[in-house]
Design a protein that fits this description.
The chain is mainly beta and about 400 residues long. Helices cover about 0% and strands about 45% of the residues. The protein has no helices and 36 strands. Strands 1-36-35-32-33 form a five-stranded antiparallel sheet, with no helix packed on it. The chain has a four-stranded antiparallel sheet with strand order 2-29-28-27, with no helix packed on it. The chain is globular and about 65 Å long.
């Protein structure tokens, strides 16, 4: 391991509007639809159920492989055909709950195991029958907000038990969206008494408390959402006041609590009720409806974290040694408040992430393969990138 300290120039990581990109991927092989459900496990995405005006409620279920851009049909969802269900993943398992079946709304909860391609029923959602709620996961826990209520529930994967958490403090709503970043979950937009909303709320897993954050600049319901790193995305959706639906996307920075527009260059015609998830540093949005109300099967990848602008040096951080083999030290010459260190491979996939809690932070990189990586150091007033060589 080399002893010399190499002070690298700091490059600005251009995550914003200028580098935002959407790329069409292989279309979903099932019939076009909206109100489907999806989640990701590892480098695979999973999508199923849903309906459209021209399509009955469905129970088919498909796997998308990020590496090959191919879809494979998997075992049909065992809970039966429905739309408006919610889903999330924990570790190597995926979960689908609630939804609107031909017989009415449901409260059942199912686990999918990709290793065996099988479904197993778990403890029913205790909030009762529901559809068009919001779900996300944090660690080994899953969370569901029941639509049109204040109910917010936690499911423990280890014990298969549900626990009521602090009530959601915003308007009781449906057609909202949500995602998680770190140990926090987020719920925003939606419809309350036929009014589209733009408020946005953060739930802290550690304190079981809610806090209102900056509102979206537009009102929307029937939106879709996903997160990459410490950035959340909300897009498409309907505005009840105007009667129009939109293709627009917005990103929220957790560190600065600010919203900004996202380019939709390359994005398709979907305007609402889409399915979304993220894999590594890429986001995915598909299906939904278009301006004519047709159910879609198109599928798009968001590449907002590609591209690096090598601007003039702002020497805020030292990284050493570089090249490194086992232990890497990141040392700040300024603030480390709420700073996150993320290491990406050259394909833009997130490999390692940890908070920078003090001026000098050691990172164990012994498990990384030899090669070139990029380190993103992101904080309230910091957004820089450095190149790392793993030897």
């Amino acid at each position: 391991m080399k002893k010399a300290i190499l002070l690298l120039c700091v490059f600005i990581w251009a995550i914003g509007l200028a580098n935002a990109q959407w790329a069409a991927k292989a279309s979903y092989p099932g019939a076009g639809r909206y109100w489907a459900v999806g989640f990701s496990i590892g480098n695979k995405g999973y999508v199923g159920t849903g309906t459209s005006d021209a399509l009955a409620k469905q129970n088919d279920f498909w796997e998308w492989d990020q590496a090959t851009n191919t879809w494979t049909q998997k075992a049909n969802f065992a809970g039966g055909a429905r739309s408006g269900a919610v889903g999330f993943s924990i570790g190597t398992k995926g979960y689908i709950a609630t939804g609107d079946a031909d017989s009415g709304e449901k409260s059942d909860f199912w686990e999918y195991d990709p290793a065996t391609n099988t479904w197993t029923q778990k403890a029913d959602f205790p909030g009762g029958n529901d559809s068009h709620g919001v779900a996300f996961s944090i660690g080994t826990k899953g969370y569901i907000y029941k639509s049109n209520s204040a109910q917010f529930w936690e499911w423990d994967q280890a014990t298969n038990t549900w626990t009521a958490k602090a009530n959601f403090p915003g308007y009781a709503r449906e057609y909202a969206t949500g995602f998680s970043i770190g140990n926090k979950g987020y719920i925003g937009t939606g419809e309350y008494l036929s009014n589209s909303l733009n408020d946005f709320w953060e739930w802290n897993q550690d304190s079981n408390s809610w806090k209102q954050k900056a509102s979206l600049s537009v009102i929307r319901d029937e939106t879709t959402g996903f997160s990459i790193g410490n950035t959340g995305f909300i897009g498409t959706g309907h505005d009840n006041s105007s009667g129009y639906s939109y293709r627009t996307f917005y990103q929220w920075n957790q560190s600065t609590n600010t919203w900004s527009s996202v380019s939709i260059t390359g994005f398709g015609t979907a305007e609402g009720e889409c399915v979304s998830f993220s894999i590594g540093s890429k986001g995915y949005t598909g299906l939904g409806y278009n301006d004519n109300g047709d159910g879609l099967n198109t599928f798009y990848e968001y590449n907002g974290y590609v591209g690096i602008d090598e601007n003039s040096a702002v020497q805020q951080f030292v990284i050493y040694p570089n090249p490194a083999s086992d232990l890497l030290t990141v040392e700040s010459l300024s603030s480390t408040t709420e700073t996150i260190i993320s290491i990406y491979n050259m394909q833009g996939q997130l490999i390692l992430q940890q908070p920078m809690q003090q001026a000098k932070t050691d990172i164990n990189i012994s498990g990384l393969e030899k090669g070139v990586y990029m380190i993103n150091i992101l904080g309230a007033d910091i957004n820089v990138v450095k190149k790392l060589i793993k030897e």
